[in-house]
Description:
alpha+beta, Pseudouridine synthase
Amino acid sequence: MQNGILPLWKEKGMTSHDCVFKLRKILKMKRIGHTGTLDPSVEGVLPICLGESTKVAEYLTNAGKIYEAEVTIGASTTTEDADGDVVESNDSHKHFTPQDILSALTALTGTIEQTPPMYSAVKVNGKKLYEYARAGVSVERPTRQVKIYELTLLSEEDSYSGKHVSFRIRVSCSKGTYIRTLAVQIGEKLGYPAHMSNLVRTNSGTFTATDCLTLKQVQDLVDNELLTDKLYDLDYAMQDMPKFEVPSNLEKAIKNGQVLDAIEALNDHQRIVYTVDAQAVAVYIKHPSKEGKMKPEKMFNRLGKEGDAK
């Protein structure tokens, strides 16, 4: 069975689940998980976790993302992207300077509030919003805070004019950001209905487009027994966490997932990683109820009996 992180380039027309389904057939294994849903109309970087690496999927999911999107001013849709039905249209002639657009982008940089679109996978009372939307049921959607680290205007026109105006942006953001909702918010700042007309995810955490393989490339590598060389070790998902080699006197305790005295590093970091021969064997966090203690959040099968490395 393969173990590791596979940076996949998700192509348009497939859901993230479709990618996992196809990889299960290609790799002939079931233990596969993706690290963040991409809509079918979106292409881009989608890290996939194989085998033991599924344990670190949440760390990759929580990592920041970078997108390149096209915003179209002049019409809003039910889904907030180009796939939905038009809800509101404004065919008046519009004119924006680059500074008009930059001012809107600046106003939406930093911590902002977003209300997820009805056609999204956010759950309310145990059901996904898109299930309510398809049934024609309106429910109150939870507003949440997200972080927009950087918003860059990629289009380089001297002016933007017409009934419908489109321009491209780059968005560096936190987990949970809806770029199509951001497109609508940009339209609101400019005074018109808007939607996201195209989207590509160019980065997920430290993975970029150049790191990625397509499903066809994965199949070719599997056929030639070369895929293992293209996988990233699960440690890659924890590269920003402080690392500590397991002390010899704690090998057995850590192997058994015991609660330990908290170390000082947890005062400044949410998680720390214990390693054996530089390979992660456990992730520890502060104990939620025992003052001065820490407990394992993740355990990896790299310690044999009596705590020996394997």
